[in-house]
Design brief:
226 residues; alpha/beta; Ubiquitin-like (UB roll); DNA polymerase, domain 1; 3 domains; four-stranded mixed sheet; two-stranded parallel ribbon; 7 helices; 49% helix; Competence_ComEA_HhH; Endo/Exo/Phosphatase_dom_1
């Protein structure tokens, strides 16, 4: 009994310490766990709140980019199509897309003079020709037969070629010397001839110059003018 009394105060102190620990330390630990858990929850919430680009938005962006490049245009198609008129297309479309919108070509359309793969331009007027029909070149802006696009390019090439021809009535010795098959000696003969005969009346007259025969003229005729 005396031993119990001796250790009783110690037991009381131990119990008090234990109770103090339970009441004060445990809530702190719980609160720490709550703080950590709450922090993780916020991160998750914020992550969910971050703007995510939806598939619809992506499709819209892509569509806007495509429309920027492939813009809408308006053309007029007449001639041998089933429903002639004004049609709306895109700048990357071809003539065949416009013809389809006009119901296709008629039985009278001259398919040998149609380039359905040709590119189209805004405000253009495209005439689908009839078999055997001759359509004169027109000056209206954008108005052309389907096969005239290539013809216009050919005409430009011919015009450039014509502008680059050497006028044998006023060309210098150096210019004449640059002609195919014409050397400095022949060039001087050309100058002498035109001075003696008051210039050339036609390009064929150059054959009168000594040293220029029929064969040489055939090589020269596409490069000279008067």
């Amino acid at each position: 009994m005396s031993k119990i009394r001796k250790f009783f105060p110690i037991l009381v102190i131990v119990c008090i310490i234990f109770v103090f620990f339970i009441k004060n330390i445990t809530p702190i630990l719980k609160n720490d766990n709550y703080i950590v858990s709450q922090s993780e929850d916020k991160k998750e919430i914020n992550k969910n709140l971050e703007p995510v680009q939806k598939d619809e938005d992506l499709n819209m962006d892509n569509s806007e980019k495509i429309n920027t490049v492939n813009k809408k245009i308006t053309i007029f198609i007449s001639g041998e199509v089933k429903s002639p008129g004004v049609v709306e297309l895109y700048s990357e479309d071809r003539l065949m897309d416009g013809v389809k919108k006009c119901g296709g070509v008629t039985d009278e359309a001259d398919m040998n003079r149609i380039n359905l793969a040709m590119k189209i331009s805004d405000e253009g007027h495209y005439i689908i020709p009839k078999i055997g029909e001759e359509i004169e070149n027109v000056k209206d802006k954008g108005k052309e037969t389907v096969n005239q696009t290539q013809n216009l390019n050919d005409n430009k090439s011919e015009q450039n070629k014509e502008n680059n021809k050497i006028n044998i009535n006023n060309a210098s010795l150096i210019e004449l010397d640059s002609l195919p098959g014409v050397g400095e000696v022949t060039a001087q003969k050309i100058i002498d001839y035109r001075e003696e005969n008051t210039k050339f009346k036609s390009i064929e007259e150059i054959k009168n110059v000594k040293g220029i025969g029929e064969n040489k003229f055939n090589n020269l005729k596409d490069y000279i003018s008067i």
